[in-house]
Task: inverse folding
């Protein structure tokens, strides 16, 4: 079936046939998402079917005083040296509570690689929490909401990196603030919760 097809035609078929469901669940943030690994596992059968392969690599670029991880995803044909590549950037945070510098870089790399694969295979992630958080910053009238989402996402990142169950957050909220869930906290309490989690 793949014989005689140009690489761009193979890519078109892979994009059409690829199903990459959001199999991951962030219980604290209450949203489903797909990871870079999920996309790669879903696309592997199609790569074999159409005689293609994927290479992904990172580079660090400095822009002003900030550092960006540039991820490149390349779709290649096993029969020749052709390649179609897509690049994506993720800016490293200056710091993230509870994470050392290598963890911050690793998190940025994971985001950048995922977005590069999204672009290569035409996957729409505009409803994912990280996109929602960024989009909300464009609305100046929602700064308070945006900060609350940002704190929630930072806490979720820390839980993932440190392999802590989200039930620990519920217990901390009840113990420290005598409230039932994150959304019940005031802005100041949310900030204090982030500081508390960062010390774990």
Result:
């Amino acid at each position: 079936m793949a014989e005689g097809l140009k690489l761009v035609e193979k890519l078109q078929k892979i994009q059409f046939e690829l199903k990459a469901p959001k199999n991951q669940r962030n219980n604290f943030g209450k949203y489903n998402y797909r990871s870079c690994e999920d996309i790669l596992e879903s696309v592997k059968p199609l790569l074999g079917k159409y005689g293609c392969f994927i290479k992904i690599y990172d580079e660090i670029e400095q822009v002003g005083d900030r550092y960006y991880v540039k991820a490149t995803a390349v779709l290649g044909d096993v029969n020749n040296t052709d390649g179609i590549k897509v690049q994506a950037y993720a800016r490293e945070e200056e710091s993230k509570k509870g994470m050392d510098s290598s963890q911050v870089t690793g998190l940025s790399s994971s985001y950048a690689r995922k977005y590069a694969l999204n672009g290569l295979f035409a996957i729409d992630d505009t409803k994912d929490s990280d996109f929602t958080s960024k989009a909300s910053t464009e609305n100046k009238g929602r700064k308070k909401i945006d900060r609350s989402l940002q704190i929630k996402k930072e806490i979720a990142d820390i839980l993932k990196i440190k392999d802590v169950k989200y039930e620990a957050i519920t217990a901390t909220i009840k113990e420290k603030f005598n409230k039932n869930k994150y959304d019940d906290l005031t802005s100041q309490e949310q900030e204090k919760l982030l500081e508390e989690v960062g010390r774990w």
